[in-house]
Each structure stands twice: as structure tokens, then as C-alpha cells.
Amino acid sequence: MSHSQTLGAGDKLGTGDSYLTLDILPPELAAHAFDRLRDEVKWDVMHHRGGEVPRLVAVEGLVGDDGSIPIYRHPADESPPLHPFSPTVDEIRKAVEKVLQHPVNHVLIQLYRTGQDYISEHSDKTIDVVHGSYIVNVSLGAQRTMTLRMKRDGVPAAADSANPDTPPPPRTTQRIPLPHNSMFVMGLETNAKWMHGIKQDNRFITLKSPAEMFQAGERISLTFRRIGTFLSADQSLIWGQGATGKTRETARPVVHGVKESESLVIAFGAENHQSDFAWDEHYGMGFDVVNFKTKDDEEQQ
Ligand SMILES: O=C(O)CCC(=O)C(=O)O
Ligand SMILES: [Fe+2]
User: Fold this and answer.
1) Which of 21, 31, 230, 243 has the smallest C-beta neighbourhood within 10 Å, fewest atoms?
2) pTM above the 0.80 mark?
């Protein structure tokens, strides 16, 4: 069997808890969503290790009656501000929830401006992602390819691993083309055992298919998540799954210390590399830190 396969709708992806769905949006919305989002979304740049990430980003979410907001923490120098769900994003959210059968309250929206824009291979950081929920990527515009690759430590050792001349066993890779109006649904087990990313596509335009050149080669993705950690309206208090105070009543002040931030960043690094990442051990006690610099070399979304 080949260690690299191209898969799509109808296939079980990753460890089997993930799949691709086509035609996620009704036709009218699918036809106009890209242009509407391009205008409607407050696009921002994001920095990682002092450099701009190679795509535009925006964050939207469900704002509570008391002004509280969900927070998704991942290594970035600073996350863009969360805006309330805008009209088109909210319509897409409803279509997503219908398929998923659980609510989502947070979305990272990204604009891949050309084939040169990309996202490095990573595992999503799950400190704030509700256990048992699914993470979804809705794709609009130009088709790009998601690469799923087993984490190195999850690959069974080679037969003759004691011999230093034995090449390391290949890591199974799945390539999943993401056409306009599709939704990639990722289970948390796949997220734990595999990494995912979207490589640059530097082929000449003449070699690209119409699907790959749709919307002049621009792609918008919407990564919806069900988040279980929240900030108060004035962003002074934090509570929930990933915080030390697990309920609104036990909310604690947001922490800005370097030390707390470093230990969370170390846990993020472990989640990126360990297929048997022990969530309770690394994240269970909770972290009240919100912004952090990372020391790791890789981009880790
Ligand atoms: O653009 C995509 O579909 C992937 C985005 C992603 O993996 C992420 O934001 O964590
Ligand atoms: Fe991701």
C-alpha cells in the first residue's frame, strides 16, 4: 500500500473520525458567500515569532448577553480581536451546525491570497476546545489541498530499528483536495495523532485546474470550533475548560506573567508532537494566561 493517498468525500480520513462533505451551503449562499465575506470580514494580519503569518485572518464568535466571549488560545504573538458573528458568517455557522449536530461559538477566518499563502503543518491546540466536539474547515473559492500526516511518534518502528542504517518508516500521508463549498470535519483523535497543513502551491497558473483558479486563486477558509473557555466583557476575568476556574462563579483574573505563558507554550509544543498527548496532565489544571510569545521554531496554530 502506498503511504500517500489522495482522498475525498465518502472516505474516512485521518484515524477514521474525520470526513469531507461537499455542498455544505445552499446554492444561493454558496454563490455569493466568497464576495460577501471578502467585504464583510475585518481582515487582519497576525504575527508569529515577530513575523506576519502568510495569510490574512479574522476572528468572530458568539458574544454572551453579559458581553463575555469565547477564547481560543494558540501560539501567536497576539490574536486578532474577536468580533461578533457577521451576517454571512452566521449563515454559514447555521449550515455547519446542522451537519455537526453540536453548536460552534468561535471561528477563525483566513484568506489565502495566492498559492503562495499557506499554513504550516500543526495540530490544533485543544486546551479550549470542548472535549468530544469536532473542528471544521469550510472552504470557499480556490481549491487547495489539505495534507494530513501521522505524527512521527505514532509510526510503528521499523523491523530493524536497532540498525542505524535502517531508514525511518514512512509516515502515512493523506492529501485531501478542498473544493469550493466543502467542509472538512476533523475529530479530535485525528487532530491528536496526525498533523494537518496546507502547503504552498507554486505551480504555473497554466497548470492549475479551473477549481484551483476559482475566485482568481483566492481561498477563504472558516475554522469553526466549539470553545469552552471564556473571557469577561472587559477581558479581566477568565473561566471554563482551559482556565483554573472552571465556572463563571469561580472566574479568576487574567494573568500576564512570562512564566505562566512559558509553561502553556511548552504544553502546546507537546501537543504538536505527541500522538498520545495527555490532555489532563498538561492542560487539566488550567491556565489563566491569554497572550504569549512562543520560543518554538515552528508555527503552531
Ligand atoms: O485553512 C484551512 O482550511 C486550515 C486552517 C487550520 O488548520 C487552522 O486554522 O488551524
Ligand atoms: Fe488547524
Assistant:
1) 31
2) yes
